[in-house]
Amino acid sequence: MLWAPVIVLLGAWCTGKDTPLDPALLAQGASSQLVVTQPLSVADPLGTTVKLSCALSSGYSIGNDRVRWYQQKPGSAPRFVYHYYTSSDQGRGTGIPARFTISPDTSNNLWNLVISGVQAEDEADYYCYTWDGKQSVAAHTGQRTPLLPPRAL
């Protein structure tokens, strides 16, 4: 049996608008009072469950702030994956399979995007973002790096 890892690169953004993520924001490096943190990458074998965490700074919390996740593949615009506000106010983007879910961790203030049975097509950059109703700038927490092909591991 072949072991084929899926590499997922992560970035994090905050925005002050309740609108779809504007690709122009991805090019900005502005600072913000919001702080979103994510690990830079994960590598997991196909078919496993992958959990991508998004942590917001203190003052922001599950149930008070909506978080959205986006997926971006090289050469494509960001694609809306999932939004989460409360257990009764959440949902996937059009065409996103049911294996993408949110598993909030209220004790650690984490919005976890869970991909069950990860597939090669899931290899992408993933972004989480939120807003506080006041800010309209984007904030990036880390340097994006190129995807590594599985054979490079």
UniProtKB/TrEMBL annotation:
Residues annotated as domain Ig-like: 23-128
Annotated InterPro entries: Ig-like_dom, Ig-like_dom_sf, Ig-like_fold, Ig_sub, Ig_V-set, IgV_Light_Chain
Please name one Pfam family that this protein belongs to.
V-set
Q: Keyword set for this entry?
A: Signal
Q: Keyword check for Signal, yes or no.
A: yes
Q: Where is the signal peptide?
A: 1-16
Alphabetical list of Gene3D superfamilies matching this protein: Immunoglobulins
Could you confirm whether the keyword Signal appears in this record? yes
PANTHER family from the UniProt entry: IMMUNOGLOBULIN LIGHT CHAIN
Output this protein's name. Ig-like domain-containing protein
Instruction: Give the organism the record lists.
Output: Terrapene triunguis
